[in-house]
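Hey,
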Amino acid sequence: MRKEDKSTVIEQIAATIKEYAHFYLVDVTAMNAAATSALRRECFKRNIGLMVVKNTLLKKALESLEGDYSPLYVALKGTTAIMFCDTANLPAKLIKDKAKDGIPGLKAAYAEESLYVGADQLDALVAIKSKNEVIADIVALLQSPAKNVISALQSGGNTLHGLLKTLGERPEA
């Protein structure tokens, strides 16, 4: 590959990393062409970008970006693919669903402005909640006290209504 081509590829990788909020480095060494194609199709269905890259070009792309990505460099061995996504836990869920015998295996990830290195971090990455999941949890927490108040008022009103009705139906003594 010519030097001009390499610099173009490095710029393309860096631009793609900047475009997405999260990226995962995945080991696809033991995957054949059919398995890789199936993984690409599944990524496309879930709105996850997938790019197989040379480790040296990826390292140079990471070095060209702002921020310190040096802890990820230890993961740049073997055949590496990058998964790009705007939702932090989607690639982790895909890897967990599809991984058979550790293929594809997680090498490292940059999610929610944190670095995760090693396959043992997969469960932590799956547990990360997306923005919409956090908003749903907050809305549920805010609605809970209001529902309790409304329920108490309704039950109190029903009790008072039943008491008045019973008193009204009683024969005068």
